[in-house]
């Protein structure tokens, strides 16, 4: 592919990303992969270059462009070296007189007031920087020091005792350490959420919104004899946990839930859990550096629904934890309503509950919890709080 053809391909892919964002469809990385499955003529260098153009362009625009072409024209305005590619064979058409280009904006204007006060204007560019590749060592089966020698360019993560950081383009899915369940791909911030649970051997631990089970696996590695139940309402995501658990040597019980009947379906756990982890559905604003088109998918209405869901799940967790037990509430968000505001509301309606100090030194105090951010901590953005039932 010529440079002009690569730019044209990027515009076509961004058109698909825009359509998918409007329909709440697949994410951008899946769309890029699908695009090249039907274009076998594109070599690895072409695929890498086009992918880089796509994500560079998406990162540039906080508001969703009208079309992929408007996005490409906006990119060209920022990088004049690309302007010569307009009108080239197999490239984008020349720009017409008065043709509008998308205007760069880091964060949609309506979201600025929703940010935690800790996320200052100076910190915001880090929200869209390229994320590193972090691995979590399976502490039940291996040591970090041993595995450091297994990966070229690996260094220990600065905050998590389980973490390795690799060069961003490292391939690990065919690495023996991955195939044998000694490591899992997991951002350092996500590892710290599992660490904050302080799961102990013999405890009963419930991961209420387990998804594909990344944090449940971390909990199992930290406390191998704990009884862990991983639940979720998404069958496809939850089904991924069993093979991951088998690979890691961590048999974790799973249970598919059907909202709004979670409490009835967890009747055998009511008032019995030592730890309930609520890694709640959220805006994903803390992961924009991995999924920059997430800014395009979020609306005020969707944020309102997410906040309602988070509050409902916290209420369920309060019924499941035993007296003296703890709820760990976490969201991969940098928005106050989903983090500090959500916990403040929980505590104000349950006067006997208390917030407790979290067993991680990372992040900064934000209300009754702590906030991790890319700019301050080098992790994805996470809010986490520890809530104790008297």
Short description:
By secondary structure, the protein is an alpha/beta fold. The chain has 16 helices and 13 strands. It folds into three domains: 98 residues; 53 residues, Sun protein, domain 3 (Alpha-Beta Plaits); 201 residues, Vaccinia Virus protein VP39 (Rossmann fold), CATH 3.40.50.
- Briefly note the CATH topology name of the largest domain: Rossmann fold
Radius of gyration: 22 Å
Query: What is the count of distinct domains?
Result: 3
CATH architecture of the largest domain: 3-Layer(aba) Sandwich
Helix-strand makeup class: alpha/beta
Q: How helical, in percent, are the residues?
A: 25-40%
Query: DSSP strand (E) fraction?
Result: 15-25%
The ordered H/E elements are: HHHHHEHEEHEHEHEHHEHEHHEHEEEHE
The level-1 CATH class of the largest domain: Alpha Beta
**What's the helix count?**
16
Name the CATH superfamily assignment of the largest domain: Vaccinia Virus protein VP39
Describe the structure.
- With 390 residues, this protein is of the alpha/beta class.
- The chain folds into three domains: 98 residues; 53 residues, Alpha-Beta Plaits (2-Layer Sandwich), CATH 3.30.70.1170; 201 residues, Vaccinia Virus protein VP39 (Rossmann fold, 3-Layer(aba) Sandwich).
- Strand 5, helix 9 and strand 6 form a beta-alpha-beta unit.
- It is globular and about 70 Å long.
- The relative contact order is 0.11.
- The longest helix is centred in the first third of the chain and has 21 residues.
- The N and C termini lie far apart (65 Å).
- The chain is 37% helix and 16% strand.
